[in-house]
Amino acid sequence: MKTFTPTPPKTVRRWLFSVLITVGIVILFSVNLTAQSSSSSSSSSSSEQETEQLIQQKRRLPLLNGHTFIASSILPQTPFITTYVRNSTGIGLALSYDIPIYDPEGEVITTVNGDLTYMMLELNYQHAINDWLALWLSGSGVGRVGVNAESILSTGISGAGALELGGLARIWNNDKFILSGALSLRHNKLIGVDIIGFAQSIIDTGIIDTGNLFNRIPSWRWKGGLRFAFAPNDLWGIILSTDLGRGDSLEGEETNDTVFDITGLVSLDLNARTKLPIGFVIGYKHTSYPETSGDIVKNSGVTTFRIAYTGRREFSIGLEFGFARAPLIKKEKTLNYGSAFINLQYYF
């Protein structure tokens, strides 16, 4: 006959202790997993912000209060200390331009109606030395030619080349504002082909001198100013800029002209609130020293509108349109012309 032997009390206590330890480990492990999952879910938004800040820190993007500013050709140097390379290629057209014809004494004989075409190219590189100082080097070229016989004969063919060296220093900033100072030195060279003047010199002297065909006007210009940006939120922001300096006359005279520029931009990035990677910028610039047509106009005002791809913050490509009004130097009339640019910019 089998007899039942009860489990010793010591063995029962060990068994119960093992069960309690196992249950405790399972509970602690479950609590740890729950804490990790809740921590990861609660920190998802903060991790995105940290990633954005990391990208901004590495590439020094033009970001302020979550807004990515859209660049414009009328103000290549914004207040932001960034490293980038930029290219702008465009064409401009002035229609129904009343072109004055002058005699050797500079008096207007008559006027002819014609059209002018501008071709423009600009390369710009800016390097951020540290988080408050950047240097830039830019080169540009502009060609102007008439599109019909009247404008070609009266204004000839002209081109302008420029090389500029400048520096940008951040003065003050917070989450929504940034203020920087800029200083630059620029060398311009305006080359013109004066067909009527060349023909007039042959008539007057009877000598063919090709030196009278080309008109070269070198000039130097320096200016300094301030750059200011404000972003109330991630959707839009504004940039204001003002510069003052001195420059050689572009009319071939040995005189200096005062250089004064004022620029305003409004930037809008739809990608910040929607899934549409498109941004816009509208701007206006007034300058007393238009380096593309300084031999015929002064005090020009340019209004621009740009639409750009904003899907990648380190890269921007866009199409920009401009309209300018400028009073002629030697005539009480205004030159109106439009332009279109393709802009590419990459931040390092």
Parts with pLDDT < 50 across at least 5 consecutive residues: 1-9, 33-43
Total number of strands = 14
Mean pLDDT, all residues? 78
Tally of separate helices: 4
Task: Produce a short descriptive summary.
This protein has helices spanning 9-42, 44-59, 149-155, 195-205, and strands at 63-64, 67-68, 84-102, 108-128, 133-146, 157-173, 177-193, 214-230, 236-248, 256-269, 278-287, 300-309, 315-327, 334-347. It is of the alpha+beta class and 348 residues long.
Verbal overview:
The structure is a single chain. The protein is of the alpha+beta class. It has 2 domains: 9-42; 62-347, Beta Barrel (Porin). It has helices spanning 9-42, 44-59, 149-155, 195-205, and strands at residues 63-64, 67-68, 84-102, 108-128, 133-146, 157-173, 177-193, 214-230, 236-248, 256-269, 278-287, 300-309, 315-327, 334-347. A 12-stranded antiparallel barrel has the order 3-4-5-6-7-8-9-10-11-12-13-14. A two-stranded antiparallel sheet has the order 1-2. Strand 1 and strand 2 (67-68) form a beta hairpin. The longest helix is centred in the N-terminal third of the chain and has 34 residues, at 9-42. It is elongated and about 70 Å long. Residues 1-9 and 33-43 have low confidence and may be disordered.
